[in-house]
Amino acid sequence: MKILVLNAGSSSIKYSLFAMSDQRTLLTGIIERIGESLALHRYRVTGNEAQIDESPINNHKLALQEIFSVLKASGASNNAELACIGHRVVHGGELFKQPVLINAQVTQQIASMIPLAPLHNPANLLGIQEALQQMGDIPQVAVFDTAFHHSLPNYAYRYGLPSSLYKEQGVRRYGFHGTSHNYVAKQAAQYLGKPLAELNLITLHLGNGASVTAIENGRSVDTSMGMTPLEGLMMGTRCGDIDPAIHFYLSRTLDMSMDDIENLLNKNSGCKGVCGENDMRSIHQMAEAGDENAQLALAMYAYRIKKYIGAYFAVLGHVDALVFTGGIGEHDVWLRQQCCAGLTAFGIQIDSDKNQNPTHPCGEISSSSATVKVLVTVTQEELEIAIQAEACLMGTNKTPF
Ligand SMILES: Nc1ncnc2c1ncn2[C@@H]1O[C@H](COP(=O)(O)OP(=O)(O)O)[C@@H](O)[C@H]1O
Ligand SMILES: CC(=O)OP(=O)(O)O
Ligand SMILES: [Mg+2]
């Protein structure tokens, strides 16, 4: 059985084709900068050279057409062999606690959640619609970022706002990156040789978007992102936790519209707002060259993570392991050191040699005397989506959370 996974973001689409018998990747690619003058398409058919193509791709529809033509030309699959297409859908609200086979009603329900995820759900829906046009009646499965966090207790997911806003408008914490938190938690359990249901973990997904999750006995009990992916850690371009009164202040003193503020907080804040750059590798280069704003952005980024580690220690009482993942969590040696520094009282201590070069796909970087393991795990959101889509398709899908 082969499964194609589409992870459509606002300006990029990642895709992977898997052979499910041994979870092998047959083809994987990403189109970035969709809508800009030159989009960048990188893909690789396993066993062949990576291909890079720069050309204008004006919209998601064209990007998807390109993906399907690569898929067909690669010979990696044809329509007959493709069992289903799995989609990452960011917001599933309270409706979707597990993956679901997509039909017209599900599509409409995902659309109804656009106000809760205006930057993500429209792109996910486009992916679904285009796949339908391109591939006809091949089954499609939606796998939700929010699903893993359905186990949050009400005192963790409710905001201190009037109950009617929760009951009538759905204003609550949902949490995101659930597929990744779930995947790396399973990897950590395997590494530690214990059932996930017996483990307390703090998982840190640090990519362009970033979130931390407190996992108690294998279930998510708190997470840093909120009603939308804007809350929590400071991110590449998103502000994370801020005083909500800043909104009124910006509106009254700078006459900013709601759209201006939304754009500012999502796209021009976080590291980009502080130092003008959102890519962590570039921020390090700037900091090393003496740029004080870049140095400040790094210090703020690490400090926010450390505060959440402390908070989730208090939530969990006992922690078996911290798990770093995402492009930054997997690669940024300095950052891992920085956000664990000074936490020996919690049992956290990093071995700086191991931290330089953690083993893949799951490496331990804590010192041998530490009571809390610190792990670096490569996340595979697309593979996890394929695994969950297969279970959904085969009807073996049980509510896992
Ligand atoms: N070697 C590295 N050191 C520090 N940061 C890195 C490194 N490699 C990638 N990153 C950072 O990872 C981030 C992207 O993470 P990724 O998980 O790929 O993003 P996405 O959320 O889009 O999946 C970028 O900020 C990038 O700079
Ligand atoms: C939900 C979210 O923040 O996703 P991403 O990190 O892909 O932007
Ligand atoms: Mg990622």
From TrEMBL:
Pathway(s): Metabolic intermediate biosynthesis; acetyl-CoA biosynthesis; acetyl-CoA from acetate: step 1/2
Reaction(s) the record says it catalyses: acetate + ATP = acetyl phosphate + ADP
Essential cofactor(s): Mg(2+); Mn(2+)
Residues that, per the record, bind ATP: K14, H205, L206, G207, N208, G209, D279, M280, R281, G327, I328, G329, E330, H331
Residues annotated as site: Transition state stabilizer: H177, R238
Sequence similarity: Belongs to the acetokinase family.
Quaternary structure (record): Homodimer.
Protein name, entry field: Acetate kinase
Lineage: Bacteria, Pseudomonadati, Pseudomonadota, Gammaproteobacteria, Methylococcales
